[in-house]
Amino acid sequence: MPKDTTPTPESTFASMGVAKPPMGTYGVPKQLVSDNSPQFVSEEFETFLLVNGIRHLKSAPYHPATNGLAERFLQSFKAALKSAKGGRSDVKQKLPNFLLAYRNAEHSTTGISPAIMFIGRQLRTRLDCIKPDLQEKVIKHQEVQMKQPFKEPRKFRDGDKVCVRDYRSKEQKWIAGIIHKKTGTLSYEIKVGPDMIWRRHIDQVISSGLQPDLQTPPEIVQPIDILNLLPSQHHCDELLYGADHYTTDSIEFYFSMVLLAIFIYLPLLDPEGSLSRLHTTINTSSFL
User: Fold this and answer.
1) Is 105 or 272 the better-scoring residue by pLDDT?
2) What pTM was estimated for this model as a whole?
3) How far apart are CA 91 and CA 70, in angstroms?
4) How big is the CA angle at 232 (ends 231 and 234), to the nearest 5 degrees?
5) Could you tell me where the beta strands, DSSP code E, fall in the chain?
6) Are 282 and 263 in contact (CB under 8 A)?
7) Would you give the DSSP letter of residue 131?
8) Whole-angstrom distance, CA of residue 263 vs CA of residue 126
9) Stronger pLDDT, 218 or 268, i.e. the higher one
10) Is residue 250 domain-shared with residue 262, that is, in the same domain?
11) Where is the domain boundary, 182, 204, 223?
């Protein structure tokens, strides 16, 4: 006697009840793949899929390999249940453990786990308790920083009198000015002279009570020119021969100027005194 394959309302509604909870959690799928069981080909189930806009794909009759992914998963699932500890009554406990391990395992084809592909992250397991949690470490550091007193950075307003760093000369490091405007969180424009506005970081600005002179440009400290400090020809003759005797064209003037330059500026040019021994070897009378 042939077996009756007419679907019963109970089996059809049971299949619909199994399909609804995942839809409520993850949404309505685009397609559903099943075999040709009576409850999947019934009119009620087809209407259910049509109303929800789900495409129904059925495998070839008596050919389970058509839906190879589902059949391969069933083989892995059955093998895991057999190898797990416990009797048959522990199936409800074995199933969540298997699913957790399976969804966290790296797939051989995609190279990533099903959990990452589905929800974008790895599922937390007991192994995570022995691994450092970077996110939790960052949160703890942020909580500690929030408990510390907040030091508000220095601020200046337009028109405040300040001193700014001057990099034009090594002698004069600071120059007075006023805040022109704020250009960033820690950047300012400072007016230091007529049509002279410098851009400085707040670390290069200090408060000052000095009144800046904005009418004249700030001067740069120039280096000393030794040639300008040499004695004149008239002054050398006056020192050597007296005020009433001048030998402006004599050769003695040039020797006297060289000697004076050596003895006056030798300590400046040779502060360590390595050349100062020349004082003891040079006989000045032989030149005059």
Assistant:
1) 105
2) 0.40
3) 20
4) 125
5) 31-34, 55-58, 161-165, 174-182, 187-193, 196-201, 205-207
6) no
7) S
8) 88
9) 218
10) yes
11) 223
